[in-house]
Each structure stands twice: as structure tokens, then as C-alpha cells.
Amino acid sequence: MLKTFLINLDRRSDRLIFVKRQLGNLGIDFERISAVDGNCLTDEQKVFLNQPRFALECKRKAVSGEFGCALSHRAVWQRMVDESIPFALVLEDDVQLNSELVSLIAEEKNYHSFDFLNLTLKRPYYDIDAVEIKKSLSQKQLIRPAFWQVIKRKAWRMMEVKAIVKWKIYRLHALHNGMIACECDFAPSLACCYIVSLQGAKQMLLASDNLFYPIDKVWHYCGGLLKEGFLAEPLAFQSLDSDIPHRVRFKLTFWQKFIRFFVKGRHWRRRLDVIRMYGWSRL
Fold first, then answer.
1. Most Cβ neighbours (<10 Å): which of 98, 104, 117, 247?
2. Average pLDDT for residues 82-97, to the nearest whole number?
């Protein structure tokens, strides 16, 4: 069975019970990771946070709770590196799980093609009807058409929510029990339930050494030619209220706005890797 880590604050035993009951019903063994409490950070722990750049990226300051969350996920990735764990399922303690999760993690072939596979969504990232159309065409892996294949390209674009800037789905993977995984860039944010490879863990540690964004965007900035994706029909949902309050935006100064224009959302390393993996013709 896939190694499973549950991130849980010591003071939130109620949430531990909430997820432990679900995992017990599904027959999934897990290891609890004591989450870093953002209210008790040391100076050494704060060294990763680039607060000025965070303000430019998000128009707000990073609050202590989300930085504690970031350190907690980093602790899981470091465990994977230290112990050479090839793949791991990572859960936060506010997740509601679908019973189909057992089928997904039962066989490595369902996720071994991915370095990061997000199993949860909080809003649509795809047109599910279009995905079903693609599924009916073939049970084999489907690859995004090149830009000169105009008709096929148009059908493919039906799967991609137009409101998301430069969102691309590059491949569809037919998994067990009719599940479909969408290989994409960028992978959806939200870190309450995902599968990560050892290579993914290494690259996420590197990308978060200088943290200027919420940790659930770290895969947007990773190098290492990571294959990222999500499930067309999610198996997990963030069902409880966030433990990270007071994320309040503020107005930037004129100088901050000027700098932000040049640095905001510049995922250069990831973008270059995407070109190397999929080629110019499929962008």
C-alpha cells in the first residue's frame, strides 16, 4: 500500500479523529506528521520566507498559519528524501475522502507516471463533458494535438476552462475503474490531498527554499521536468473551515506595482521544462 502521511496540529485532535475515522473505514494505514504551529515559529524556521516578494506576488503578507503549513509539507518531503520513499500520499486533516481512493492507490501503475497528482479540487478546472467525450474515443493515452491540427485542437480546448490563463492539458491517462488523470500545466492549487514522487519531493524542497507564495503553488515553480496532473473527477474535498485566518490583501505602492509587473507569476523554470517535455507545437 502507498505510504500515507497525515499532517495534523497537536492541538487539533478533533481533526485527527475526523480523518482517522475515514482512513480506518477505507483500510488505509497512515503515519501522522505533527504539523508546525505557525503561532510558535522560531527565527530559524522563518528563514525560508521571503516576505517582501510574497507581498508582491499575493498583494498581502504571509500569515503565520500558512507558513506553518508550508513547513509541515516540507517536513513530509524531507522524510521522503531522507528515507528514499518512491511515492507518498499526503493528506491534510480537513479532507473528505471518496471511497474510490482505495482503488487508485492500490496499484502503482495508476500514479507512477506522475511526479505530482492532485486528487482534490475546490472549483472546476476542466469541462467534464468534454473529458467524457475523449474517454469514449479511446481508452488509450491521449496526447494534445499540435497547433496545426486545428480541428482536433478545438475539441481538446473544450476540456480547458478558458477563465484560467494559459491552462493546458497535455495528456489524458485512463486509470483503473474508469478514472481519468489529466497531465497538465499548471497543476491545480490546494494541497489537502495529493500523491508525490521522490523526484517531486526533491524539487519542491528546492523550490520552497525561498518561499514567496502559498505552499499549494510550489509545483508551479518547480524544475526537474516534473509530470504534474489532476483527476478529472476528484477523490477528495477540503471540507472544513481553514485554520489559517487573517489573509487580508492591501494596496501596493506605485513602486511595488512597478516591480510586480516584472516578477508576478514568472514561472520561468517550469515553463522551460514544459517546452522540453511537450515541445513548442503543443503549447
1. 117
2. 96
> Domain residues for 71?
3-282
pLDDT of residue 73: 96
Contact 191, 85 (CB under 8 A): no
Give the single-character DSSP code of 43: T
Going from the C-alpha of 234 to that of each of 52, 89, 102, 202, 223, the distances in angstroms are: 35, 14, 13, 25, 25
C-alpha grid cell for residue 1?
Answer: 500500500
Q: What pTM value is reported for the model?
A: 0.91
Q: Whole-angstrom distance between the N-terminal and C-terminal Cα of the chain?
A: 36
| Residue whose C-alpha is closest to residue 194's, from 147, 156, 226 | 226
Reported as a single tens digit per residue, the pLDDT across 159-207 is 776 545 567 889 888 888 788 898 998 888 888 999 999 999 999 999 9
**Distance (Å, whole) CA 90 – CA 30:** 10
- CATH code for the domain of 149: 3.90.550
Question: If you write DSSP's letter for every residue of 92-140 in order, what string do you get?
Answer: ETTEEE-TTHHHHHHSGGGTTT-SEEE-B-SS--B-HHHHHHHHHH-SS
Nearest alpha carbon to residue 45 among 16, 13, 74: 74
Query: Which grid cell sits at 148?
Result: 496545426
Q: What is the pLDDT of residues 120-137, one digit of tens each?
A: 876 656 666 777 666 665
